[in-house]
Design brief:
By secondary structure, this protein is of the alpha/beta class. Helix content is 44%, strand content 24%. The radius of gyration is 14 Å and the shape is elongated. The protein starts with 9 loop residues before the first strand and ends with a helix. GO terms for molecular function: GTP binding. One of its GO terms (cellular component) is microtubule. This is Tubulin/FtsZ GTPase domain-containing protein.
């Protein structure tokens, strides 16, 4: 679909740093977007895991690996701590 658009401005990506699909698949997606659409903007809205409200043991590992990809392939990253969202409700 993106190839069919004449005035594609960029991509908005919403994901979690702690989840397997949210972190692993998004890292792969960001790499592919950088290769195929290098000059297009990539904006990330991410939820970063907090140890106080952790739901999985592997969240710290997933977040460390995803952080590297975010630094390398994202143009703008807006991060929200999961504990801050927890206190909103």
């Amino acid at each position: 679909m993106a190839d069919q658009r004449a005035s594609l401005q960029g991509f908005l990506i919403f994901h979690s740093f702690g989840g397997g699909t949210g972190s692993g698949f998004t890292s792969l997606l960001m790499e592919h977007l950088s290769v195929n659409y290098g000059k297009k903007s990539k904006l990330e809205f991410s939820i970063y895991p907090a140890p106080q409200v952790s739901t999985a043991v592997v969240e710290p590992y997933n977040s460390i690996l995803t952080t590297h990809t975010t630094l390398e392939h994202s143009d703008y990253a807006f991060m929200v701590d999961s504990e801050a969202i927890y206190h909103l409700s």
